[in-house]
C-alpha cells in the first residue's frame, strides 16, 4: 500500500479537526480539472496563485483611502488586504473553519481595485458600459485576465468569496451581491469592514482629519476607546456570537454569520460616521475631481488609440468577442496610482502644458 501524500494527510487532518460546517479542501471544485498537488491542498494552491500574481503585487502602489500620502505609515490596498486576511484567519481558526480557504479569499478580494481607491472606482463606474465594481473586476482577473486569458483556475469557493465580499452602504452584513455559500467567504465579507473601519480611523487621525474625541461617544463606549480595543471587541464578538459554527451548540436555520445586534449597530454607525467625515469630506471632493479627470482622460485617449493598449489585453478581449471598451477598462483598472499618473503625464502634459 502506497504512502499517502502530504496533501492527503492534511485533508484527513481537516476531516478530523475542522468544524462540520467548514469547507473541506478535499471537496474543492475547479472549473477546469487538474492533477492535485502532492503537497498543497486545493485552497493552499489557490492562495499561492493569488499571492504570486502580478495584480496582487500591484496592490502595494494602489490607494486605500488617502491619495499620495506624505507619510510612510498610511495603509495601501496591499496592507489593507493583509490586515483583512490576518483578522479573518483569527476568526476562522477560533471557529474551526478552513484557514487556507479564508486566506485565499482574503488575499484575492481586492485585486480588481482601480487606481486611486474608491475615487478611481467611482470614476470608472461613471464611464464604463455596464458600470464598474472592484469585486466584479477581481473575479474577471482570476477567471479571465491572468495567464494570457486562461485565468488562475481557482476553486469555486475562492471565486465566490471574492465576488461576494462586497456589501451595501448601510450594513456590513448586507447581501448586495449575495451571501457566500461557505462560512469562510462570509468571514471575509465582515472582516473586510472590521479592518478598514479601524485602520481608516487610524489613518484619518494621523492625517489630522479626525481627532479621537470626534468619534461617536456611544460607539466608543461599546467598541472601545483605542484601535486595539475596537478590533478586539469586534473580532471577539464575531467569534462568540457565531460559536455554533464550531459545531457546538445549535446552528441557526440559515447558516449565516453575523455580529451581535449591539456590536453590529455600533459598527455600522461608526462606518457611517467615516463616510460622512472622511470618505465624503469636502476636501476629498477636490481630489475626487482630479481623479475623475485623469481616469476619464485616459479612457478617452485609449478609446481613440487602441494600439497603445498592451497587445495581450487586446488579444484576450478580441478572442472573447468583447468590445474595445472592456480592454480600456481592464488596462486602466490594472494600473497603480503612480503608473496612471506617469501615463497621463507622458501622453498629455507635453502637449497641453509644455509651453507654460
Biggest beta sheet summary: none
- Estimate percent helicity: 55-70%
**pLDDT under 50 segments (min length 5)?**
none
* CATH architecture tag of the domain at 32-247 and 254-284: Orthogonal Bundle
The separation of the N and C termini measures 80 Å
Describe this structure in a few short sentences.
The chain is mainly alpha-helical and 356 residues long.
Distinctive features:
about 350 residues, mainly alpha, Hypothetical protein af1432, flat, HD/PDEase_dom, hydrolase, dGTPase, Deoxyguanosinetriphosphate triphosphohydrolase-like protein, dGTPase activity
Description of the structure:
Helix content is 59%, strand content 0%. With 356 residues, it is mainly α. It starts with 5 loop residues before the first helix and ends with a helix. Helix 4 packs across helix 9 (183-206) and helix 5 crosses helix 9. The chain has a domain at 32-247 and 254-284: Orthogonal Bundle (Hypothetical protein af1432), CATH 1.10.3210.10. This is Deoxyguanosinetriphosphate triphosphohydrolase-like protein. It comes from Chloroflexus aggregans. Keywords: Hydrolase. Belongs to the dGTPase family. Type 2 subfamily.
Please render the helix and strand layout as text.
Layout: H1 6-17, H2 42-51, H3 54-58, H4 77-94, H5 99-108, H6 117-127, H7 134-145, H8 156-163, H9 183-206, H10 217-223, H11 227-241, H12 261-279, H13 282-304, H14 311-319, H15 324-334, H16 337-352
Helix pairs in contact: 2-5, 4-5, 4-9, 4-11, 5-8, 5-9, 6-13, 7-8, 8-9, 9-11, 9-12, 10-12, 13-15, 13-16, 14-15
Keywords: Hydrolase
Pfam families: HD (PF01966), HD_assoc (PF13286)
Protein name: Deoxyguanosinetriphosphate triphosphohydrolase-like protein
Amino acid at each position: 500500500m502506497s504512502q499517502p501524500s502530504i496533501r492527503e494527510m492534511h485533508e484527513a487532518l481537516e476531516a478530523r479537526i475542522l468544524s462540520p460546517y467548514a469547507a473541506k479542501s478535499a471537496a474543492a471544485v475547479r472549473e477546469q480539472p487538474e492533477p492535485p498537488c502532492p503537497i498543497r491542498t486545493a485552497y493552499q494552491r489557490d492562495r499561492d496563485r493569488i499571492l504570486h500574481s502580478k495584480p496582487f503585487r500591484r496592490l502595494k502602489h494602489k490607494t486605500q483611502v488617502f491619495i499620495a500620502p506624505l507619510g510612510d505609515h498610511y495603509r495601501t490596498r496591499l496592507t489593507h488586504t493583509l490586515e483583512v486576511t490576518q483578522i479573518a484567519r483569527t476568526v476562522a481558526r477560533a471557529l474551526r473553519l478552513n484557514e487556507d480557504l479564508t486566506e485565499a479569499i482574503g488575499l484575492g478580494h481586492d485585486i480588481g481595485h482601480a487606481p486611486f481607491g474608491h475615487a478611481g472606482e467611482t470614476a470608472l463606474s461613471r464611464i464604463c458600459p455596464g458600470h464598474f465594481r472592484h469585486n466584479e473586476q477581481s473575479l474577471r482577473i482570476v477567471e479571465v485576465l491572468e495567464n494570457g486569458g486562461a485565468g488562475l483556475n481557482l476553486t469555486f469557493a475562492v471565486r465566490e468569496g471574492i465576488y461576494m465580499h462586497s456589501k451595501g452602504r448601510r450594513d456590513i452584513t448586507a447581501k448586495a451581491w449575495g451571501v457566500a455559500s461557505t462560512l469562510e467567504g462570509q468571514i471575509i465579507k465582515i472582516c473586510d469592514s472590521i479592518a478598514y473601519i479601524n485602520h481608516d480611523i487610524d489613518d484619518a487621525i494621523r492625517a489630522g482629519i479626525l481627532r479621537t474625541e470626534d468619534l461617536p461617544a456611544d460607539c466608543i463606549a461599546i467598541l472601545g476607546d483605542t484601535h486595539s480595543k475596537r478590533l478586539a471587541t469586534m473580532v471577539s464578538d464575531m467569534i462568540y456570537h457565531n460559536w455554533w459554527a464550531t459545531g457546538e451548540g445549535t446552528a441557526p436555520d440559515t447558516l449565516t454569520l453575523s455580529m451581535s445586534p449591539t456590536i453590529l449597530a455600533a459598527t455600522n454607525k461608526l462606518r457611517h460616521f467615516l463616510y460622512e467625515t472622511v470618505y465624503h469630506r469636502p476636501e476629498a471632493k477636490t481630489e475626487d475631481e482630479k481623479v475623475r479627470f485623469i481616469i476619464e482622460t485616459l479612457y478617452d485617449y485609449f478609446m481613440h488609440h487602441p494600439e497603445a493598449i498592451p497587445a495581450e489585453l487586446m488579444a484576450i478581449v478580441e478572442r472573447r468577442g468583447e468590445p474595445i471598451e472592456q480592454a480600456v477598462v481592464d488596462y486602466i483598472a490594472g494600473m497603480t496610482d503612480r503608473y496612471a499618473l506617469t501615463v497621463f503625464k507622458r501622453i498629455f502634459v507635453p502637449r497641453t502644458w509644455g509651453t507654460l
